[in-house]
C-alpha cells in the first residue's frame, strides 16, 4: 500500500501562505492580546483593546442606584482593532465549516461560488445584527415616542449595548476590506463590494462620532432586515433556481425601507434638531447642532450646514441605491422576457406541410388517375 502524496505547502510568507493561514495568524495575535491580561504590566494596555472604554457613572437621584453610561474617544480605535481580528476569525470559521461544505454539495460554477460565499457571510451578519438591534430598540422609547430621535441632543451618553453594537459594526465592515484579499475576490467584483463597504463604514462611523447613534440604530435595523431577505433569497436561488419568490418580497420591502429612511431623516434633520434648545458647536460637549451660518434660500428652509450635510449624504445614498435597484430590476425583466421568448420558440409545434395540389391529368401524389371510371381490362376489351 503506497503512501498518499502530500500537497506541497507554499513558501513561508508568500501570498498563498498568508491566504491559507490568515485565520491562524490572526488567532495568534488575538491570543497575545488576551494573554496580556495575565500580567500586571501589560494588563492596562490589553484592557484597552478588549473592554469598552470611557465609562461614565451617573446618579439620577440619591435613592436610585447610579447608572453606567459610555462615551466615545480615541481609545475606541484599539477596541475596534481587536474585534476586527475576532471578525476575521469568525469569518474563516463560517467559511470553512458551513459554506465550503455546502459548496461541495451544490457544485456551483466559479461565479456562483463567489456570490454564494458573499451572501452566506452577509446573511449571517445581517441576521445577528438585526436581532441585536431589535433587542436594543425594544428597551427604547422609539415605538411610542418618535421624538426620542432628537430630544436631548447631543446624545453623548450611550448604554453598553449601544456602544458595543457600534464598535462591532465598525469592526465588521473594516474587516471586510482585507477579506477581499483573503477570499481571492474576482477583480470585477471588487469595485462593487468596495462601494457598499465604504458606505457602511462612513455612515455608521458618522452616526457614532456625531452622536446620532439613536437615528443610526433605527435606520440600520430595517435596512438589515431587507438585506437579510435578499441574501437569504439568493442562497435559496443557488440551491434551486425555481425558488425566486423571496426576491419579490425583497423588492417590495426595499422600496418601503428607502421611503422610511428618507422620512425619518427629514423629520430628524429638518424639523427635530432645529427646534432643540441646545444649539451650537462644541467638540468638548459633543454638540454638532451648529447655529445658522448660511440659510438655504433657494429651497426656503432653515437647515444648518451640519444638518444639511448629513441629510444630503443620506438622500444621495438612498437615491444611488434606488438607481441600482431599478437597473437590477430592468436587467432581470429583460432576462426573463428573453427566456420566455426562447421557450416559446423551442416548444411551439412544427408547422404541418400543405397538401400538394393535384397535377395535370389527375396526378395525385405521383400517381396518374384517369377520368374514365372503367377498369383497364374493360377499356382494352372495348377497344378490341
Word description of this protein:
Helices cover 63% and strands 3% of the residues. The strands form 2 sheets. The protein has a two-stranded antiparallel sheet with strand order 1-2. Strands 3-4 form a two-stranded antiparallel sheet. With 384 residues, the protein is mainly alpha-helical. The N and C termini lie far apart (100 Å). Helix 8 (245-272) runs antiparallel to helix 9 (305-347). The protein is globular, with a radius of gyration of 34 Å.
Topology:
Elements: H1 15-35, H2 40-50, E1 55-58, E2 67-70, H3 76-106, H4 110-138, H5 160-182, H6 190-209, H7 213-239, H8 245-272, H9 305-347, E3 363-364, E4 367-368, H10 376-383
Antiparallel strand pairs: 1-2, 3-4
